[in-house]
Amino acid sequence: MKAVLFCLVLSFSTLVLVSESATTRLTYSRWINLLRYAHSSLQRDPTAVEDRQYNRTDHVQLIADSILKHFFNDIFTPSFTEDGELVHNYDRVPVDFLIMLDSSASIGSENFLKALQVLSTWIDILDEEDFSSDQLRVSMVSFSEPDQVIHEFAFSPALNKSSVISYINSTEYHAGSSTSTAQALWLADTIFSKHARPDAAKVMLMATDGWSHDVLELPFGVLWPAVRLRKLHGVQVFTLGIGDKINHNELEAICSKPIANHLFEVDDYDMMLEVLEKVKENQIFPF
Ligand SMILES: *[C@@H]1O[C@H](CO)[C@@H](O)[C@H](O)[C@H]1NC(C)=O
Ligand SMILES: *[C@@H]1O[C@H](CO)[C@@H](O)[C@H](O)[C@H]1NC(C)=O
Ligand SMILES: *[C@@H]1O[C@H](CO)[C@@H](O)[C@H](O)[C@H]1NC(C)=O
């Protein structure tokens, strides 16, 4: 039975990927990435990490540029006067932003604190006025084992930037023994369909260090809810993979296309903090 289900999931995922790549031009960098990960997944021993053909400093800059462009600039598009003065443009579409954080045991409590720091820093880059004017609402889900898929806090006009940061910072570490990514995506589906504003741009960021364990328990694993989020609710889905135990293909299947603009992969939590420091340095205005 499980084998049949697995084949179904596989063929469904192939269908989804093929249909989406037909509309998305395969970029050169994506091919390089695919080759790089095909290569690294063949060599799973730790020494393979030393073989990587990229320079850490350059990689930090590359990811920072991508996050700055595709997350901050594209979603929180700033407007300028003719003299180059920033104007707050409150006529633009409001944004509902859902954060999904893996809190499974593989992360470890020390890295979990770093993950919270990553998310707090991410929020800190955003403009306080976007929160106070209700232009931006943030909500968060943490997920590990099936009974530890938790809606930590909901979209609310009452949350300003500092309350969102302190909510994130006080997220409890559940250290669940598995990673219920599919179930967490179904919760995201409910949150966006029931609690997001109909006129808002919907954005999601999923941070994980591993791969889903509930792929055979729910129909089509992560694919069905991910496709629903993107196609039915129009959510722009970003995935953030941290460390060398991530499942690159799964993160690709979850995020929006083009993949290169929506999937960010870093070696560890410290590297992600460096990336966000670069984003902060390179930002030339509040968003
Ligand atoms: C990585 O690139 C930076 C500049 O982009 C350079 O300064 C540094 O020496 C390089 N590191 C290695 C190990 O090649
Ligand atoms: C944010 O909200 C909290 C709680 O409602 C409030 O105590 C705090 O003063 C607010 N901060 C700002 C900067 O408005
Ligand atoms: C988060 O909480 C820790 C203490 O638990 C504190 O040291 C840190 O400054 C807080 N960070 C933010 C961004 O509030």
TrEMBL record:
Residues spanning the signal sequence: 1-21
Domain of life assignment: Eukaryota
Annotated transmembrane regions: none
Pfam families: VWA
InterPro entries linked: ECM_Assembly_Org, VWF_A, vWFA_dom_sf
Protein name according to UniProt: COL12A1
Keyword annotations of the record: Signal
Originating organism: Bugula neritina
UniProt-listed Gene3D superfamilies: von Willebrand factor, type A domain
Residues annotated as domain VWFA: 96-279
